Amino acid sequence: MNLHLLLLALCQGLFLTNNVTFIAINGLVGLSLAPNSWMATLPITGYVAGGALYTEAYRPEARTTAQAAMDTVVFSTMTLTSFSSGALVTTQGWTWLNRGSTVPLVLVAGGPSVACHAAAPRPESGLNLRGTRHGLP
After folding, report:
1. 0.90 surpassed by pTM
2. Any domain includes 65
């Protein structure tokens, strides 16, 4: 058997184990923190549903490239924030970690509202969000 193929299969197996562990821990932590049990898996549900809806915006031949780009950005961001939060907590403490996480949280929470406001159709244009005239396909 080819050594590179074996290494690839091992890495994919570890990657899938990581995803299952991530989802299981997310649900357990959510269950201990959420005021209602139905909210326990809400963050991971949003993550999975968002990933599925993200690829629907692309042509079928471009979906795998779009999914790969999104996964790269998501996991790179997770890696960067994990290492930076660990460094910040060990050097400055929890207070500075909480203060430092406020800015990205505001940016992430405010980004969709700004994007929706910018993409809203103007009444004088007569166009809907798909860029077609109202009432026409």
Report:
1. no
2. no
